[in-house]
User: What shape does this take?
Amino acid sequence: MIDSNKKNFTEYPRTRARLVLFTLFVVIGFLSIGTKITFLASKKSQKNKHYSEAEKIPSRLNILDRNGYILATNLQGVSVYVRPAEIQEKSLVAQQLKNIFPDLKKAVLLDKLNDGRKFFWLKNLVSPKQEKALFDLGQPGVYFGKREYRFYPNGNLASHIIGFTKVNELGVNYAKIMGISGVEKAFEKKLSVKVLPESENNAIELSVDLPVQAEVENVLKEWQKRMGAKAGGVVIMDIHSGEILALASSPDFDANKERDPVREKKDTSVYFNRVVQGVYEMGSTFKLFAVAQGLESNLFDVDTLIDTTAFRISSRKIEDKYKFNRKSSIYEIIVKSSNVGSARLALMVGEKGLKDIFSTLGLLEPVGLELAEANLTSPIIPKDWRDITLATTSYGYGISVSLLHLAKAYAILGNGGFSIEPTILKKNLDVQMRSRVLKKKTSDEILKLLEAVVADQRGTARILGSKHYRIGGKTGTAEKIATDRPGYQKDKVISNFVGLFPLKEPKYVIAALLDEPENSFLKEPCRYSSCTVVPMIKKLIERTGPMMNVIPAQSGAKF
Assistant: This one.
């Protein structure tokens, strides 16, 4: 008995130790499970918080014009997807969906509902009316997801500048948007950053002036229709800062409709930017360049007499449509637009001189605009520079550039000879920091010649004379290259004009073109720039000048 009590007494501490150890393991287990649950709950909470915050912040920044008008923004929308396994009356539901979305085919819907798939998208984006109709069905298996989409409040306006987007990545509650063209593509990295540093605005601010852009587009479309042209383009730019206030290409497109499924027989030519991407032989607007080089090199002055009788280079005859005196001054060559005189000047300037002025004015390389379309557009320049090449390029044949190239070149000629680079962004540039590439005297002489083209009664742009503004510029008409044979098409031309205003203190360059225009409102049909593009330019300047704070001169005022 004594031995038994002694044994229980000696084993009790061991039992107690085991119980303590077991209890400790249980406690540790519960603590581990609790910690894990707390961690997961916290993680889920943080995740939900992240999603909640993300929903409040647009996934893409706004695009604004220089006045703060919204050109592109993100809006909240709804997507719809279907889980077929949850739908019983599949044929009935397919018909109901067809009634709400007439563009869908019932047979295709039935196939998707019956082929065993677990999930399919019905619509990436639906209207509020369609959303309500779906909701009223009360149909299990039809689900809604949150969606952000890109919205362009002005429709077609400035479409070639802004560009458009597409959905690059799609989820039930999100859609990642990616730029395809224009500003949307050029500034993709910046636009897709949700929050910029405090020193920067949460938007891309463009140099474009929306009211000016709207007026330019209205006039361009009106004149394109009136002249029966297949396309056209206009650009207005500050010649000191390079800021583009308006850039219009016609035909255009509504970027909001780019969210729709790809349509059959879609006209993709509407996306082509005639101002930036189109390169054309520009005709007589090139005649200023050899003159500028000659003035810059002191080879001649505007009163120098040049032989303007027709002549041959090899088998090619260089002649003018209209009769000139045997000798004409450089002033007359530009005002009356002589091909012979321009060819003679180019031969005087020589290959090096002509290449130098083309290079100085940026005509041999892509324009450094922020848009990717501009960086990918190279001029078409001659492979050799024989005498015949010098002659023809002097009056705009044998070399092709964009309208934006011309605008830049004339801006340098008219701003005192300072180099500039066009920009689509709103900037406050210090004009004192610009580099001079031409003498001021050269620029001043060129401005006098451009004004004479308008003011002189013999000038090719005399109908541009305005009682409100002092304007200068140069006309250009070039026959289009034939596609079915060597040579050119006499009945199809590119008509263009480049001008500067107001000439008292030059501030803006305006360049415009019409593709295959014909003015049928005259006694005889006319395709020349003087009767197609120039009247449009006059209307554009008189309508947009006041918008850009260009004070009209009083009638009859002299400068």
The chain has a mean pLDDT of 88. The domain at 211-547 is CATH 3.40.710.10 (Beta-lactamase). The first helix runs from residue 2 to 56. DSSP finds 16 helices and 16 strands in the chain.
